[in-house]
Amino acid sequence: MRRKIAQPKNRSHVQSYTHALTRSQTKKAKNTAAKPSLITRQSLCDAIPWFRALQGSTYQNNGICYGILIDADCGPRFYLDEEIIITRVGGSYQKGHDGQLRLMQDQHLDRYPAKALLASLQKSTPVGMVLGNRNARVGAGLPHRYNVLAYFRVTDIWYEGIDGHAGLKVRFEKVSLVEKSWWVASNTPDPLPYDQRPLIQPEVGRCTHCNTETPRVFQQGWMCLQKDCAHFWKIGIFDPPANLIYHSSWLEIRCNPQTTAIAPHEPLIPTTLASMTASNGIDATSRDTWRGIVCPRCKKCIQRVLWHGWKCTIDPPVEGLPERCTFEQTMQLRPVSIREVAGPRGLLPIEMDDTNDKNDGDNMAIGQGIDLLSHLPYHKHTYEIPGIGSVTHFLANAGINERPGGPNDLFNILQKEPLGLRRFPLDIAVVTGMLTSHFAVNYGMPYKYVVSVASKGFNEAPDAILRCLGRLTWATEQAVTAAGGSVLPPNELLALGYFEGMKIGFHDDGEKSLGPTIATLSLGASSTMKIRMKHQYYNGQSRRGVLLKKDIILPNCANEKQRQKWKDQFENGTIRKEVYDRRRTTLFRKQRLTGESPTQIQLDLQHGDLVVMHGEDLQKCYEHSVISSNLLRFALTARHIKTDCVNKAELPKGEFTLSPDQVYHGN
Ligand SMILES: O=C(O)CCC(=O)C(=O)O
Ligand SMILES: [Fe+2]
């Protein structure tokens, strides 16, 4: 390989981006810092397709490394300039008491992640480089938590002596030798074209013991870098000094871009934004549109938080702090027609046969009742869970949906209204900064669903939202009356918006402040709702194997008959508590009970359908999820929030009066 040196060096420094903040500003900045959702690893992985690794420093796919994150401690002799990076290969390191990483064992080229880096080298695959601001050497000067540098090629991987073991190091060379690197000081001269750089031959040496020829890596002398050779990591017969530095030829040699072509597999920075704004026919709610982007102004990775587009800084500006990036890209959402997304039932006139009534998936048939007549034009399916509650599904059809002010109109209007829908960080996320996979806005009494959401008063709600509330009030009354309960009218409405591929994962709606009834109206794309027992009630014990103090035996739970028998024996005094507990522990252990409950009730929710879940224990013992199927769906869920659980100042938010045409009578 013919390689040349870079331009005569005015060795550059990483540019300093740190704002000069006073101490009080720094404190303020910490307190009011952008929500973690905007600066986390999740933002990076969401925006960058070649780095979808939420953990570790390497992103690999099919055995090839496509992206590297350099953060925190990069091992001895970490090196970075405008075109070269030399760093350790991850894995096999552990943090000691002093906080320093130590190599615990020899690394091997045939193990990941080294193997994936070697594959990138052999297959000439460029590796995208991200630099984190926790990097001990250069991090402090960087503008963001994660900074996309450029595409690099892997030129060499070799062994060094590290902490008494053979540790792997890797040398990366920037793919483009033409563009000036953004991370160097602005007064660094532009790079010389490759043709104008002086030719350099690498210095090589041959080991007198293993006879292998390798380049000279270090200034202090040539060393054999074959880890199994007796002369490994020696300069002559001596151990190398602690202050080893790289030899100039090792740093300055470059691959000839003409003879060693290397093509990036995709743009370093995805073109999502450009393609969205060029109105080139991409649907504004398709899967690609709710990925993150790299801010074209400040280069921060940002997630799609807002319904209408991307905004670099979501939080309002804080007085006394430097202004944050104001980049904002809203997009016109192409109106989605009901014909494009609705399932067949929402588009067909009512049929009096029972074909519609086979649509509700493969249920485990917990007391399923079908009522085709009493709620006409709806069909009604009810699932009774004895002692727990019921799920009522009102199935709509074109007759219902096409009425003025009905689901078709509501779907069209909700697309045009500025509802204030946005994604929220999940409180219980496994990875910090993980956002919900749906957009949400709450109206009326405050309600905390899977995340905390600020509520808007019903006096701010558009007509369409109040019409939905009218329908949900009707469905609540019908289902609760049929179940023989007393109706608590809804005073809260959570609107969810689902783009293509969005969902709400398993959760319950069982907050202390909630009444026992939850009603949902589906608009637009069809979706699948699954209801299953919570893990502990299905198995009779917690995930950690702790027995339920009072076993609740739900229909179809694991070991239903056996558990019921022992529970009866315990309750009527035939067996003592120790025996009861021992029997259950032994049985559960033997069966290694750890699985989730199979779906107990599965509903095919179509445009215009209403679902009412009723019964407090339903939310205590069961959980539900909904997966949307197509470009656009809205789910409007109304509940009754107990007013004594609400902060007095917020009570007016839940007050509303429906006009006669917002009230619904079930037609
Ligand atoms: O999208 C749906 O139909 C259900 C929404 C839901 O479960 C909720 O808002 O808690
Ligand atoms: Fe829910």
UniProtKB/TrEMBL annotation:
<dbReference type="Pfam" id="PF13532">
    <property type="entry name" value="2OG-FeII_Oxy_2"/>
</dbReference>
<feature type="domain" description="Fe2OG dioxygenase">
    <location>
        <begin position="489"/>
        <end position="642"/>
    </location>
</feature>
<feature type="binding site">
    <location>
        <position position="507"/>
    </location>
    <ligand>
        <name>2-oxoglutarate</name>
    </ligand>
</feature>
<feature type="region of interest" description="Disordered">
    <location>
        <begin position="1"/>
        <end position="33"/>
    </location>
</feature>
<dbReference type="GO" id="GO:0035516">
    <property type="term" value="F:broad specificity oxidative DNA demethylase activity"/>
</dbReference>
<dbReference type="InterPro" id="IPR032852">
    <property type="entry name" value="ALKBH2"/>
</dbReference>
<dbReference type="GO" id="GO:0008198">
    <property type="term" value="F:ferrous iron binding"/>
</dbReference>
<dbReference type="InterPro" id="IPR027450">
    <property type="entry name" value="AlkB-like"/>
</dbReference>
<feature type="compositionally biased region" description="Basic residues">
    <location>
        <begin position="1"/>
        <end position="12"/>
    </location>
</feature>
<protein>
    <recommendedName>
        <fullName>Fe2OG dioxygenase domain-containing protein</fullName>
    </recommendedName>
</protein>
<feature type="binding site">
    <location>
        <position position="624"/>
    </location>
    <ligand>
        <name>2-oxoglutarate</name>
    </ligand>
</feature>
<feature type="compositionally biased region" description="Polar residues">
    <location>
        <begin position="13"/>
        <end position="24"/>
    </location>
</feature>
<dbReference type="InterPro" id="IPR005123">
    <property type="entry name" value="Oxoglu/Fe-dep_dioxygenase_dom"/>
</dbReference>
<feature type="binding site">
    <location>
        <position position="498"/>
    </location>
    <ligand>
        <name>2-oxoglutarate</name>
    </ligand>
</feature>
<dbReference type="GO" id="GO:0006307">
    <property type="term" value="P:DNA alkylation repair"/>
</dbReference>
<dbReference type="InterPro" id="IPR037151">
    <property type="entry name" value="AlkB-like_sf"/>
</dbReference>
<dbReference type="GO" id="GO:0051747">
    <property type="term" value="F:cytosine C-5 DNA demethylase activity"/>
</dbReference>
